[in-house]
Amino acid sequence: MSMTLRRKIFFNRVKKQKFHLLALLPFLAYLFIFRYYPMYGVTIAFRNFSFRRGIMGSEWVGLRYFEMFFRSPSFNRVMVNTLAMSTLSLIFVTTLSITLAIMICEMRNLIYKRVIQTISYLPHFISWVVVAGMAMTLFSIDGGPINNVLMALGLTDSPVHFLDASMIWGTITGLNVWKSIGWGSIIYIASITSIDQGLYEAAIIDGAGKFKQIRYITLPSILPTIVILLIFNLGYILNAGFEQQFFLRNPRNFQRIEVIDTYIFRYGLQMAMYSYAAAVGLVKSVVGLILVIFANMFSRRVLKMGLF
Fold first, then answer.
1. Going from the N-terminus, what domains does the chain have, and what CATH number goes with each?
2. What pTM was computed for the model?
């Protein structure tokens, strides 16, 4: 096909789809203004940024702030906290979201099903500020309802310090699960409902019970959805959260609750070390990108499916 013919076909397609292309313009403008243009500011990670001199006028220091972060005494602690809380949340939220989706799809009472779905979705819309306030009240060692119930049932002789360093990872994971599994189950429910019902009918004829149907039909059928979401979530493995850690931190758990996002906030805004905070944030983004690429390559090689 000649170049002239290709151009003619291209412009004919543009002419036919001009209204669709015009409808895309606001979205493209949004991407450029709020997503791509701000990337210019990433360069402060390589400069000794000064408001007076501006970004381009600030001294170029190369990888100085990256070296500072990797050599910082806080590096190991912050990375361990971030990876631990993020991994725990990823494992439990994903597993329980799939479980909840399967349970909801197995319900036969439509009214009961809608009620359970609504109740499970509601926590997603509650602000972390409110959730943190609820957690501090419920888990309080001074008359908190949870500790009162535990002691009344004889399960413990003294109040449990849920917000102390020894238990804060589990507490935040539990709050993430409560807040996220309902919303996270939506896409799995959509995937399950798209499965050919003839497969289940054939399995019933062959004598397969509910658990075998789930094991051999439901889970394999939604595996591509699970894999794609896991690849996406691995890109956010260093995003352990900010609000929950920020609002639940106290002097007793600070060493175990500080994650990369709260670390960036502390150094970037509270201590005005803008270049250093930008370098730490850039490290987080680059690591997320690398994890997504390698996770996709692994999935392609082992499971023969992937995101791209």
1. 76-302 (1.10.3720.10)
2. 0.86
